[in-house]
Amino acid sequence: MAEIHCCWKDVDRLVFFFTLCFGIGSWITINGLWVELPSIVPHVPEGWTLPSYLSVIGQIANIGPITVTLIHFFAPGKLKDTVAAYGIIGIGAISCILLSFTWDTTGYIGGSEHSVALLVLVFFTSLADCTSSVVFIPFMSVYKPVYMTALYIGEGMSGLFPGFVALGQGVGQSSCQNVTKFNQTINMTYYEMEMVYEGLNFPVRDFFFFLCGMMVISGIGFTMLNFLPHCKKEQIQPKPKSPSVVSMPYVDSTFPTPAHALRNTTNSTDISTYSVLYEDAHLDRSLSQSAQSDTTDKQDVQEENFAKLSIETKAYLLLIIGVLSFAGNGLLSSTSTYSSLPYGEKHIISPSRSVTSQIQWRA
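Structure (tokenized):
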């Protein structure tokens, strides 16, 4: 407990906040799209098969992280994490803007009507979100390990914020209404209960504007982490490459030594007082450098411990991560709509239809 308290005591709140904002942009576009599905599905030709399309597109978008990994492997240092992060945030923001105007635009593919604009732009948002996993974390590795927690909290909020906004939008609210229909083939009039979705508090377009705004906030947080001098103070300073180089004690030129400052002073009290102040200032500087050195040493120990793991252990860990990613991002997301449907629209309508449906024959 004391170690945890000491760890959080060294956290800079401003840097923590910027890191949290940066992490929000990792998966917010895809998470937002999933919570908005009940408002999108009634207006697209795919209907409730749309989640399956989204899952397939999301898996295809994994070409992004694969490409980044191959670039780092075959051309180390050619792809800068900063450039890649700005590209991810830019693609996500632009895709959300385009979705706000074209999400219900349809076209024909193979003789069938599809939401062409929606599916294409979902691919780009998925490409950005999937690639963020292999770009954001390496960028944060230059900061103290404690700020990785803020990044993960931001990733969690990328699903929380869209959910709250969707609830405020009134997504999924519906009611059953008795509708009169006529079948010309058999000359029959019948009544049927249908699910009617109630009006939203604000349209789908505004929801995509919200997602774009969150991507902009993520970009601002990343910019602050990348360029703000205050944030750079929390970065881990690399060790000298040559072990033969001996670092000299820090001497602050703005704080002169007692001998230099009191050159013309003969009062022993002034000399003694100034010497104490001088020693306190250098003690604070030494403690700060010592704390930073301890953080660097801890990271080196973690890297050494990981390097000591056997190939079998590393393969096992990668396999577990792959299975969890497949289950969470592929299997469950694509089948959840079908497994939940019996408890939704069909379940509500069917009993009512058997009771209230009436058939009248026309002359």
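DSSP finds 16 helices and five strands in the chain. The two ends are 84 Å apart (CA to CA).
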